[in-house]
Please model this.
Amino acid sequence: MDKEEQRQFFQDTIERNKGILLKVARAYCPNNEDRQDLLQEIMIQIWQSIHKYDDQYKMSTWLYRISLNVAISFYRKNTTRIKNITQYNEQFVLITDEEITENEQNLNFLEQFISELRELEKALMLLYLEDKSHTDIAEILGISVSNVGTKIGRIKEKLKTRFSQIKS
Amino acid sequence: MNEQEIKKLWQSASEKWEESLIISKQNQKDISSIQVYNLLASMKPIKIFTLLVGILWVGIGGIVLTNIFLFAFEDANKFFLFSAGIQVALTAIGIIIYLYQLIAIYQIDITEPILQTQKRIAKLKSSTLWVTRILILQLPVWTTFWWNDSMFQSWELWQWFIVLIFTVSFTFTSLWLFFNIKFENREKEWFKLIFNGKEWTPLMQSLELLEQIEEYTHPDKTDTQPVSHS
Model:
């Protein structure tokens, strides 16, 4: 690919897969300002890696790898700020409890749950919610398929407990 | 809520988020005009400055000391010569490890699976512990470089006592820290005290991430055995 083709490929890739970038950014940055920075950083890294793209991988696998790798590294730089925002979100959820619909409330709880997970659990949770197969998850994370099963089992258990706590 | 309901909730929310996200064409064009990263450009000026000072120190120190060793060994103060030699050699090792880290971090491929990439990044960052350990070994030679032959002839016992208190305690402290600054001790109070502060945050976070990675790569081992990364 020459430079112009690379540019076109990059722009098409971003346009078609912006959902992946956004979901990763949301999971790792509850704060909107940080999220914009993270999205920008992910796009820069995709551009910087575009020449390495190998079409033997699914595009989504390749993009998840870059986005999650950037998010995990980026997230670590902003841990303190994110902790503060998380606390704020908790208060927000409590105050507006009665004003929002049940679905919105559940989504808030789900996002709250994700924000409390550690970096690698967040990645796993995200891929699980996206309904990725265990093989795809194993390929993105770089662990065995059986290990994916075990880890997802644990995270589902955590999620179930959390939701039942909230409901009670 | 059951599993399917949760997934459905997430997916319908995702669709809404995606619809609302507009990435401007201009922004994409701007990004695609960015050149490939340059290692020097990505480093903070203070780090470049520290590195240059370190290289100059080792370079000049190395030339001066080599000349003394080769041409004026007989007349030279051996305490100064060996203390300075050890100091310069340890600083040189520290700089080499630091340079290796910088180059290796720069070469990391973020298109590889998450655990492999993150493990490499975290291990490299945590190898800063090695630089710290090696530089700490310099402590005792700062107490001996000014010693000279006349001290042995004219000094009283109390003078030796004071000097040796410093040398022995510095030697003990540096050896103790050299052997104890390691991943396994990251939860100890003295460790947190030393590595407290903004400068050390990436290191401490890397150690924490290594622990998470270990849980994923050796799920059975982490419950019972400590891991070694120092």
Observations:
- Residues 43 and 113 of chain B are 25 Å apart (CA to CA).
